[in-house]
Structure prediction request, 134 residues.
Amino acid sequence: MLYIIILVTVLFTSSHLKGQTQTDKAVVKQIYDVLQNKKPSSKEIAALKAGINWDEVNPGKAARNKYSISLSAIMNNAWGNIMFEDLNFQIPEKNKVLVTGIVNGRQSTECEYISTRFKHFWSLKDGKIVSFIE
Prediction:
């Protein structure tokens, strides 16, 4: 619980992070750490999502089936036992973080684990996440 409170505080109140790409990377990395290491409550997820413009690129029907894990579905508690692998954080430009990797998880109604490759594009301003594209 303390970890989530610290994360939310960093995401939404930090003013000393202005434009520092390594710090932007750390802010984004904390989200993956929280989602992997703990099942956040609905209240904590709402705090993480607050103030962020979420956009999901929809490549087709295959991406909406039960064999694909999206970050928005994780945030809506549709997936459990989340584990991120091969995370690669890149800074393509100032205040932008591109994250690629593999996410593994399982739906509570299913027994099998699913693996999905992903690309997430985060935009930050003054050390706060302002938009996300999946």
Summary: The radius of gyration is 14 Å. The first helix runs from residue 2 to 13.
